[in-house]
Write a structure and sequence with these properties.
Largest sheet: none
Distance between the termini: 58 Å
Number of helices: 18
Structural class: mainly alpha
Order of helices and strands: HHHHHHHHHHHHHHHHHH
Length: 313
């Protein structure tokens, strides 16, 4: 009987260890970056390096992200997803670099996006990122709206909503604002995720200074049936960026954190950080400090939260 109890106890310990140590990909989705980095830094396989690069990317540690992303691509050069993430990492590093370094990193981003599309022509996120590069970059850097249009044509084979989104961004870049709005609305009609496209339209309205229209689009997005939980995060971000309805934004973020459906693109530590920013804007420094501390508990390497905490304490 003691042997049976011993085996049973061992099985319980194994089960507990499994529960206590979720896969690193789940840690990224939930925003537990400290645990993710700890789990991944001792590994040298391509998948682990890619995930580690994404953890650093989420924390805005661009140099570390690029370093790990380059290693992942070198180990698995035929993996389109690794090239896509490395392109994103070069792109964000370019935004924080000197002019000369920015140009070099931007060109590397373009090359990685193009390689991702070459390896996987059906990779819609890679085509969207490549189209965005072509839309924003000058011709001397390999940009061009004709190239972005070509990507929209290819994207339409897989996702009509995403194709209209690319066309909307092209029209916006060319200051053809009525056409851009029409394309955003077409994207909503065709979208697999209508809430996301309503929030894309909200961002367009915000950038146009049409803040009442922005708020209406946010409300419509949140009211969409079957909308994903991350819509709360994106809706809060729009309100924060437009300096409107801070209390609603806090509620949206709290709904998101309580949803149990967290995603990598909206990690929990960033949700806490944004709640902190919102509280700070409302003059609630103690509440802001608590949220910045919660952010750092999940991602101690997230420098913006560290700076914000120092500011309000």
């Amino acid at each position: 009987m003691k042997l049976v109890y011993s085996i049973f106890a061992s099985l319980l310990l194994l089960a507990s260890a499994s529960i206590a140590a979720p896969p690193p990909s789940d840690l990224l989705s939930s925003g537990h970056m400290n645990e993710a980095v700890t789990a991944l830094t001792s590994r040298a396989d391509a998948e682990s390096l890619n995930l580690l690069s994404r953890a650093y990317f989420a924390m805005e540690r661009w140099d570390d992200a690029v370093k790990c992303g380059e290693r992942a691509v070198s180990l698995a050069p035929q993996n389109a997803t690794y090239h896509l993430w490395l392109g994103r990492e070069y792109g964000r590093k370019a935004g924080d670099s000197s002019a000369l370094s920015a140009a070099a990193n931007a060109k590397k981003a373009k090359s990685e996006f193009e390689r991702a599309v070459q390896l996987d022509p059906a990779n819609v996120p890679a085509r969207i990122d490549l189209a965005q590069y072509y839309t924003e970059a000058p011709g001397i850097m390999g940009g061009g709206v004709d190239k972005a249009h070509d990507q929209a044509v290819q994207i339409a084979k897989y996702d009509l909503g995403a194709a209209h989104l690319v066309l909307a961004r092209i029209a916006e870049k060319q200051k053809q604002y009525p056409e851009a709005e029409g394309q955003f609305r077409a994207a909503i009609t065709q979208a697999k995720n209508r809430a996301d496209m309503w929030l894309q339209l909200a961002a367009f309205y915000r950038q146009q200074g049409r803040l009442d229209a922005m708020q209406a689009a946010v409300r419509t997005a949140i009211a969409e049936p079957n909308r994903p939980a991350e819509s709360y995060f994106d809706a809060a971000s729009e309100l924060y960026l437009s300096n409107r309805n801070y209390s609603d934004a806090v509620e949206y973020l709290q709904e998101y954190l309580a949803s149990g459906a967290l995603v990598e693109s909206a990690p929990a530590f960033r949700a806490h950080y944004m709640i902190g920013q919102l509280n700070e804007k409302m003059g609630r420094n103690a509440a802001a400090a608590a949220e910045y501390q919660a952010s750092l508990m999940l991602a101690s390497g997230f420098a913006p939260a560290r700076s914000a905490l120092d500011r309000v304490q």
